[in-house]
């Protein structure tokens, strides 16, 4: 899943100030794409494959981190931007937080052999599906930045992006209800589970839920762009 650009990083600013942000988001999304196979391997108790997928997520997160650092260091102060420079820096930080959460999930499963409790499986699948959907939506929003730039953040493209932002917010709300149900399910069965594993499952659920929170933050950041 190598998506590195052959274009010199600083050169990306000459084509569009948003190119590095989009390049970063594609790597972040690649991290998220490894979470379903990671959990599938956990379902099957294939810990060798869990390690393999966890290592991939950690590697991709590191590559995303390098892009974020390069973006901060090479973004020209004098570049005439259609949006506030600080907002653009905050946007890439919000994106990076998504990759950080994927890495945290990978590390929990890398350092501890866990089993998926049977009562959690159905609702965990729902949470995973919702997490993937909102991650795709956040990535699609970032891919719209070039079109927004071309029309000056106005017109039909603005309306289209506004509707996409509303969709991300609805998805985040739906995921909140799933998280409530999965935590309630865990609580109802926790006395029959290993207490230490229960603690880690609460942590994993919060990390997965954090991805949708950060995806909503990305959407809110774009809403800020549209409102200025």
TrEMBL record:
Under the heading InterPro entries, the entry gives: DUF47 (IPR002727), PhoU-like_sf (IPR038078), Put_Phosphate_transp_reg (IPR018445)
Q: Gene3D superfamilies annotated for this entry? A: Phosphate transport system protein phou homolog 2, domain 2 (1.20.58.220)
> Entry's SUPFAM superfamilies?
PhoU-like
List the NCBIfam families hit by this protein, alphabetically.
TIGR00153 family protein
Family statement drawn from the similarity comment of this UniProt entry: Belongs to the UPF0111 family.
Stated name of the protein: Phosphate transport regulator
Organism of provenance? Desulfofustis limnaeus
The root-end lineage is: Bacteria, Pseudomonadati, Thermodesulfobacteriota, Desulfobulbia, Desulfobulbales
